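**Archive record**
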Amino acid sequence: MSKLKYSLRTIKIQEINAYLTKETNENSKGSKKFSLKREKPSINIEVLSDKKFIVKVSEKISFVPDLLAFKLEVIGYYSANALVNEEELEKDKNYLAEPLFPFISLVVGFITEKMLNGPPLILPPFNPYEEDDNENSPD
């Protein structure tokens, strides 16, 4: 049996829920120290048809002290060169989600720049909770 080859067809934003948790104003500038709280992303796979499937990545991000919080859900639409099933795809889910993280980073940067009236916050464009980058990547 040949190895599956995947092709990412498109990436779509399914959900963006962003809100300021504290009012920011121009007079409160100065030392703005905060830390980022990034929960472990949820990665789910759903088979649409014999050779098509989607990968959903959901992330919750907030700041300490409370300033801004948001939830994002991004979906990657894939096709494969052979029949797929969820069990096979679950083994490669971190690998399949990799292209979605730079997209999330871009969206977070744009939102933080516009909502906080300052420079964009650029997140690392990868899953920060992934233990081994090459563990499940097909060669």
Remarks:
- The chain has a mean pLDDT of 83.
